[in-house]
Amino acid sequence: MEKRNKEVVIVSVARTPIGKHGGYYNNLQAEDLAVLAVYEAIVRSGISLDKVKIDQVVAGMIYIDSLNQQIYLPRNVAMRVAQKFNDKTNLNVSPGKTTLRICGTGFQVLADAFDLIMSPNQEISTVISFGTENMSRTNLVHQGRRKRDSIWEFEDAPSRDYLLEGFNHNLFKTLMPKTAELYGEHCGITRKQCDEFAFLSHTRAIKAQSRQWNRFAAPCENNYLKGVFTVDTVDQSGNALSVWRDEGVKYDVKLEELAALRPLLRPDGLVTPGTASQISDGAASAILMDRAFADKHHIPYLAVLKGYQFSTVPPEVMGQGPVPAIKDLLGKLGLKIEKIDLFEINEAFAAQYLGVEKELGLPREKTNVNGGAIAMGHNIAATGLRITIDMIYELKRQGLKTGVASACIGGGQGGAVCVEIV
Fold first, then answer.
1. What is the spatial distance between Cα 251 and Cα 237, in angstroms, rounded to a whole number?
2. Do residues 1 and 120 lie in contact, with contact meaning Cβ atoms separated by under 8 Å?
3. At what angle do helices 350-360 and 322-333 cross, to 10 degrees?
4. Which of 411 and 164 is assigned the larger pLDDT?
5. Which of 103, 187, 194, 418 is catalytic?
6. What is the pTM of this model?
């Protein structure tokens, strides 16, 4: 098939408020959160899915297990969303796949959609991508193997924490906070700077949430200021609760309290519970289209997805990942860093973020302007998509054009995407 020049546009996006561990979404599965996000993205798009075919559904999730049927995630979500529309869509026949790139999974679902639409070898015009995670509901796993003489019996073995095991990188004898400390120390970052940045993250998030509230006088269903929509859930007592803001943001945070926290790894370490991203729950979704297809069918869109990049760094300094990813992406697109209007860098750890900021020379006044994962949380598979969504709406709010979102990725990688507001 003849190769055609294409562009990929982001038609609509939506994300849940981020819940903290054991909070908003303690009684919901990751699949439930994904259904909410995908449904909201479709509603926001205004497109009629009985007329516009969804060619693929791309799901992203890290902590997948078969006990909760998550191996069927993209198809289950598509079918359940179709049911919410009384099956008046083609979602029930849309093929789906699950993709994984650890902390870069939220970017990978965008990259997969981009590649599917850009491919000259297949006719794909519309893709729904989503990332979802409920870290609160990860399991304690029995590690015993099945006995050789019976598939029904198991050998004795200890149980392992499914969530925390992923924070270790055994091949390189390291763990995620250690990689952040090593990188931060290499860049000359101090504990004081980490505490101050964590405080700033909460301060900026509080200010952004205040804008959310004041713009509408009260939290409302179509809260587009940050791409967030209201989710109906229940509190720990079973009472009905409508949530509209990221739960982890601490309104009573004090710098001196952050400074008093004990480091996680060693007495003079950089990483504390206050300067690390929060274990969190939530989902995000996006609808992507071939630009010519969208124009032909008079479908409005938010932004052009200009491109993506995944690059590598030594696993021992995993936090450095955004540095080569952003440099490589901008080089590929022919852009200079000073021409980017806004940056979103995932705050896996303050030490890691500050190292990236220093190496790239990022201006803090246009980076993570609404706070980041230290304040809001890092619901891993959704994070890349979440920060892209927030960046798109902040670009629109400020009347700006070009943004780059990036994150470090376990194993020694960095991911980045670039969007341009239409």
1. 23
2. yes
3. 40
4. 411
5. 103
6. 0.93
Instruction: Answer yes or no: 220 catalytic.
Output: no
Give the span between the Cα atoms of 112 and 123, in whole angstroms. Answer: 15
Fold of 174-193+306-421: Peroxisomal Thiolase; Chain A, domain 1 (3.40.47)
CB distance 416 to 104 below 8 Å: no
Half-sphere exposure of 33 (CA within 13 A, CB side): 34
C-alpha R_g of the chain = 21
Q: What is the pLDDT confidence band of residue 201, given thresholds at 50, 70 and 90?
A: very high
Convert the pLDDT of each residue in 326-380 to its tens digit.
Answer: 999 999 999 999 999 999 999 999 999 999 999 999 999 999 999 999 999 999 9
Give CA–CA dist 106/127, Å, rounded: 14
pLDDT attached to residue 371: 96
- As a whole-number percent, the residues of the chain with pLDDT over 70 amount to 95
Domain ranges of the chain: 174-193+306-421
Tokens of 30: 């990751």
Catalytic one of 187, 194, 220, 408: 408
Q: Is 187 annotated as catalytic?
A: no
239 burial type by CB count under 10 A (0-12 exposed, 13-18 middle, 19+ buried): exposed
